[in-house]
Amino acid sequence: MKTILVVEDDDNIREVIVSYLASEGYRTLEAESGRLALDQIRDRHVDLVVLDLMLPDGDGEQVCETIRGRSPVPILMLTAKTSQRNRLLGLSLGADDYMTKPFDPLELIARVRAILRRTDGGDLLADRIPFRGGELLIDALQQKVVLRGETVALTPNEYRLLLVFARNPNRTFSRGDLVDKVLGFDFDGDARTIDQHIKNLRHKIEADPKNPDYIVTVYGIGYRFSGG
């Protein structure tokens, strides 16, 4: 049974989310502030976080950044902020998906299912994949990425994206291809969301993200992994 932490200071909204999640068989934890959310993640096993961005003790984006610094747990942001800039900011901080209020609880459940399905790990490579003489190592048994001897903290989407590339070195993928393989066929957001995940991943594995060696842009088409 998956455990989902719902971080929302509005009691009514939190109760609705918890009720729908429970009806689908999920175990739930609740927090009405960022501090309590961080305490729960420290003390309990959590499989996914539904995180409101307007919290009484600070900005939920800061909470997202703090969570991501501690754990790769998937994060679904929930907010009244509707601009593309806010969406991209949330993704850049490590969120896996982004929903705006008001929302349909059934859509939220569908997105939770999709995120958990993508990050479950059951269909990932059971192998160790080295690139460039071991400079970059993907250990799919432990779901871990090591760069020059140091473990790289990746979000679930970043990890899955890197695995897709590693399975298909020198193959060019369009944004649509990567959306389907990483975010799922049921993802209904902007395909350019993948660009933000690529940007984040480059900052973590490339010596010079502006002149990448691993994840290369194929202009007019998409991206290619040149592992060497």
From TrEMBL:
<dbReference type="InterPro" id="IPR001867">
    <property type="entry name" value="OmpR/PhoB-type_DNA-bd"/>
</dbReference>
<dbReference type="GO" id="GO:0005829">
    <property type="term" value="C:cytosol"/>
</dbReference>
<dbReference type="Pfam" id="PF00072">
    <property type="entry name" value="Response_reg"/>
</dbReference>
<keyword id="KW-0804">Transcription</keyword>
<dbReference type="InterPro" id="IPR039420">
    <property type="entry name" value="WalR-like"/>
</dbReference>
<dbReference type="InterPro" id="IPR011006">
    <property type="entry name" value="CheY-like_superfamily"/>
</dbReference>
<feature type="domain" description="Response regulatory">
    <location>
        <begin position="3"/>
        <end position="116"/>
    </location>
</feature>
<keyword id="KW-0805">Transcription regulation</keyword>
<dbReference type="InterPro" id="IPR036388">
    <property type="entry name" value="WH-like_DNA-bd_sf"/>
</dbReference>
<feature type="modified residue" description="4-aspartylphosphate">
    <location>
        <position position="52"/>
    </location>
</feature>
<feature type="domain" description="OmpR/PhoB-type">
    <location>
        <begin position="127"/>
        <end position="227"/>
    </location>
</feature>
<protein>
    <submittedName>
        <fullName>Response regulator transcription factor</fullName>
    </submittedName>
</protein>
<dbReference type="GO" id="GO:0000156">
    <property type="term" value="F:phosphorelay response regulator activity"/>
</dbReference>
<keyword id="KW-0902">Two-component regulatory system</keyword>
<dbReference type="GO" id="GO:0000976">
    <property type="term" value="F:transcription cis-regulatory region binding"/>
</dbReference>
<keyword id="KW-0597">Phosphoprotein</keyword>
<dbReference type="GO" id="GO:0032993">
    <property type="term" value="C:protein-DNA complex"/>
</dbReference>
<dbReference type="InterPro" id="IPR016032">
    <property type="entry name" value="Sig_transdc_resp-reg_C-effctor"/>
</dbReference>
<dbReference type="InterPro" id="IPR001789">
    <property type="entry name" value="Sig_transdc_resp-reg_receiver"/>
</dbReference>
<dbReference type="Pfam" id="PF00486">
    <property type="entry name" value="Trans_reg_C"/>
</dbReference>
<feature type="DNA-binding region" description="OmpR/PhoB-type">
    <location>
        <begin position="127"/>
        <end position="227"/>
    </location>
</feature>
<dbReference type="GO" id="GO:0006355">
    <property type="term" value="P:regulation of DNA-templated transcription"/>
</dbReference>
<keyword id="KW-0238">DNA-binding</keyword>
